């Protein structure tokens, strides 16, 4: 079994020895093959998080047209189930990735995402949408997301946070493009064909990802279980996973409700209000890349603590925003800092296992924990928010409090790592 000594403060790593397989060469940290993996992972995120984050546009359409008789909480379950399966499937996808079945995950995920969107386009009831868009697309996205960040982690070391940020920024770009596609096409060609167009775009881009992605590390000779008990003995890993749970409970609430808030509180017309979601997602592109550059220099966890704290402050400030200019500034800032909170966990988790061969498994375990935060956060907020009455404050306070709790826990993890480094 590989044994790696780590310096948590500097995020450095050195392979010492291995007994069950030959020591792999160090990550190339660049070159054509490595950057092609970033491109392929970027396309996987484009069609996993990109489609999941598009649900804000679908929720607006469902509440005002297709499912006008359903409550905000009921409709939000579709989107949160999508996100839950995207993240929770890491507990299965991680070990599958580690055992070398990388391409099987990609093909399965591609089929499920495209099939789910096509079935959604045929749906006429809430439960049909729930099955197609919530469950099927969510399962497919789950097969795609973890491999996208896990493979990039094996190709980069010194520049890992930046490479991961570029990879995960695909989710932000997808969540800018897909809502605009839906918004522009739905009035002219209808809900079914607008949804099918998204499915066809996903099929084309995912085919490109499959063509360029290649694993670097050979699978271990001894297959590992889906759960690595060593992770539970790592206090930084346990606390970081708990902090991620709280972060994802509150982080995505603005993405689900910003369009409604823009219309009812900021006085925006329907067309301009819709683009607040794209503005949130667009600014998160930079939030997933620029903090990654800083993280490679100052440490992933340090930057994550800062960005989580700012996201929490912005969430509280959102309650007092009642004009278009203030909401635009909020979307730009919140999209940037929340994007960093989404992209940096992968680079933090990649440095916690004792060897790179367990990256997928440890990521999957941590993603399992935070997936439950994503699952329940928006429905809880939806029960507190009353769109028809223009009452948002209780849900926003809930979101801000959850992100604040996450920031405190991340800071504690950083303190523990510093103590370990000194010892």
UniProtKB/TrEMBL annotation:
InterPro entries (UniProt xref): MFS, MFS_dom, MFS_trans_sf, Proton-linked_MCT
Entry-linked PROSITE patterns: MFS
GO cellular component: membrane
Transmembrane segments: 75-97, 104-124, 130-155, 162-181, 193-213, 234-260, 272-291, 303-321, 327-350, 362-384, 396-416
Keywords from the UniProt entry: Membrane, Transmembrane, Transmembrane helix
Biased composition (Polar residues): 9-22
Pfam family name, one: MFS_1
Region described as Disordered: 1-27
Signal peptide: none
Residue ranges of every copy of the Major facilitator superfamily (MFS) profile domain listed in the record: 34-419
Locations listed in the record: Membrane
Single Gene Ontology MF annotation: transmembrane transporter activity
Membrane topology term: Multi-pass membrane protein
Family according to the record: Belongs to the major facilitator superfamily. Monocarboxylate porter (TC 2.A.1.13) family.
Protein name: Major facilitator superfamily (MFS) profile domain-containing protein
Naturally occurring in which organism (per UniProt): Penicilliopsis zonata CBS 506.65
């Amino acid at each position: 079994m590989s044994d790696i000594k780590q310096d948590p403060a500097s995020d450095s790593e050195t392979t010492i020895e291995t007994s069950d397989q030959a020591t792999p060469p160090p990550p190339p940290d660049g070159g054509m093959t490595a950057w092609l993996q970033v491109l392929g992972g970027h396309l996987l995120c484009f069609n996993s998080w990109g489609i999941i984050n598009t649900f804000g546009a679908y929720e607006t359409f469902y509440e005002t047209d297709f499912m006008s008789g359903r409550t905000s909480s009921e409709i939000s379950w579709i989107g949160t189930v999508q996100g839950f399966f995207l993240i929770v499937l890491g507990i299965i996808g991680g070990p599958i990735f580690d055992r070398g079945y990388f391409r099987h995950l990609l093909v399965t995920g591609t089929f499920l995402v495209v099939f789910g969107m096509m079935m959604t386009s045929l749906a006429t009831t809430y439960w049909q949408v729930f099955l197609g868009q919530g469950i099927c697309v969510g399962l497919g996205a789950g097969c795609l997301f973890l491999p996208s960040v896990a493979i990039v982690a094996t190709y980069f070391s010194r520049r890992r946070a930046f490479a991961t940020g570029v990879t995960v920024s695909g989710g932000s770009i997808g969540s800018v493009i897909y809502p605009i596609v839906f918004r522009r096409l739905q009035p002219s060609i209808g809900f079914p064909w607008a949804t099918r167009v998204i499915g066809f775009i996903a099929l084309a881009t995912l085919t490109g990802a499959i063509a360029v992605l290649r694993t670097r590390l050979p699978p271990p000779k001894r297959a590992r279980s889906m759960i690595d008990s060593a992770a539970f003995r790592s206090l930084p890993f346990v606390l970081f996973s708990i902090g991620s749970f709280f972060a994802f409970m509150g982080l995505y609430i603005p993405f689900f409700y910003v369009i409604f808030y823009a219309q009812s509180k900021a006085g925006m017309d329907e067309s301009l209000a819709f683009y607040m979601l794209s503005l949130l997602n667009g600014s998160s592109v930079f939030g997933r890349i620029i903090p990654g550059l800083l993280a490679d220099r100052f440490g992933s966890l340090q930057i994550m603590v800062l960005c989580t704290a700012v996201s929490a402050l912005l969430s509280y400030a959102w309650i007092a925003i009642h004009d278009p200019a203030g909401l635009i500034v909020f979307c730009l800032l919140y999209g940037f800092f929340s994007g960093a909170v989404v992209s940096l966990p992968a680079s933090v988790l990649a440095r916690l296992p004792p060897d790179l061969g367990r990256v997928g498994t440890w990521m999957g375990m941590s993603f399992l924990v935070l997936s439950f935060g994503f699952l329940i956060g928006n429905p809880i907020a939806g029960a507190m928010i009353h769109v028809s009455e223009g009452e948002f404050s209780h849900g926003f306070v809930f979101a801000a409090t959850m992100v604040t709790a996450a920031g405190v826990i991340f800071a504690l993890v950083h303190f523990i790592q510093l103590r370990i480094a000194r010892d």
